[in-house]
Amino acid sequence: MIPVKWYISIMLFAGAVTFVYGIANGDIKTILGSFLFTGIGGGAYLLYRKPRIGTISIPKASQQINEVLQSPPVILQREVETPVEPLVKPDPVSADSSFSKAGDCLPLPLKSENPPNKVDQRNWAWLISIGVVLSLCIVGTVIYAYSSNKASTLGQAGGNSAGISKALLDEAKAGDAAAQTSIGRAYWQGTGVPKDYVQAVYWLRKAAEQGNPGAQLGLGIIYDGELEEVKDVPQDQAQAALWLRKAAEQGNGIAEYLLGHLYASGRGVPQDYVQAVAWYLKAAEHGEMKSRAESELGRLYAHGLGVALDYSQAAIWYRKAAGQGDSDAELGLGTLYSRGSGVPKDNVIAASWFLKSADHGNADAQMLLGILYGSGTGVSKDYEKAAVWYHKAADQGNDLAQYNLATLYVSGQGVPQDYGQAAAWCRKAAEQGNTDAQTALGGFYEGGRGVEQSYVEAYYWFNIAVAGSKGEEREKLVSARDYAATKLTSTDLSQAQTRATDWFTAHPVQR
What we know:
The protein is an all-alpha fold and 511 residues long. It is 64% helix and 0% strand. The longest helix has 30 residues, at 121-150.
């Protein structure tokens, strides 16, 4: 049996050691474990000093204890430093024992007026047993936390899921940039550990400050926050541009492309299409983003952004990227063929490129393919196929496809006539700011087709559509809106106008 004071000392020492270790390693689980160690040690100390708090009564000995208490020569005190072993065969007439039955309770010595304090040994056995069990649980928790945080498998750079050994962690702590990058990417990508962008930034920054281009790229992507949803790390596009530039200047192709994209969009840097072209040209020479850079160069040439407008050059760059399966380039090249810009006009070839892009999941290409099938341009007219492609694009949120699909449900071409479906798809497009869909939805509510008739809703959607229309169309919408207003009470009109104002606040830009 471990002496009580040793047990208390061990618990308090363990609490101190685990607390220091937790602070040194930034491990909250270990720190919490240290509090439990200390709490158990402190609780045991209190019981040791004041055993009445945790004393367990022994019913069988109560009568004998009363007899002893009535004996003048005996001075009883219940506090002890160490428990006394029970007598196996006590002598009923012995002066060393006040009990006649062995095993019922502890003996009470009568040797002096100031005897050493004694406590029921079974109380301490009970307390120590519980303490040992709790201690084992705590030790197990701390070991698990340590193994989970330090010895669990973390993906290596490039997606290797073999894990990270303690040796690699030691290398990272010693300042090895490659090891730091590996750990940072593991936390960034959630390989072997839950995603933790704070830890990712911590390790990537250490490596990035040593000039590691992979770490600089990672920091740039995380701070940009456009390619993925980032938690717990504030978006900072200026920081994104800073780190992407450092990586790009070392020839990292992905960083070159992303930096060009920042210049094209004006995120984190002043918008500068000339700079965008320069970085896209670098990225188009090599790397994983080669085809994307080529596609962007085609787009800039097709719109004369950062370079002189040149459809022939646009077609060249689009064709390079389209040959590698880039869906935007396939769409762009198809558009040039449909217009005869930089290449001979050919709707059949245009349709073939749209089909390639649509098969790669490009929603705009799917929508355009629906238009071609609906009109019979470059392909045989087929409303059913038009509806199929409109539906694919509409499911991806393409508002033009949603509106066009609604028109098919109204006419019953390619799909069964269904005003309910027409109104539903019009609503999806209208909520994205599609003026045609807003006008149509207002008409559905005015006439009660596919929806419950409501002049309040008709006024609301006509009012919104007015802001996005021009000329004669605008005048028609104003008339329709004002007619719906005559059907409303002043309260309903006020509420509809308030809703429209709220919508304009949330959608300040009208197409």
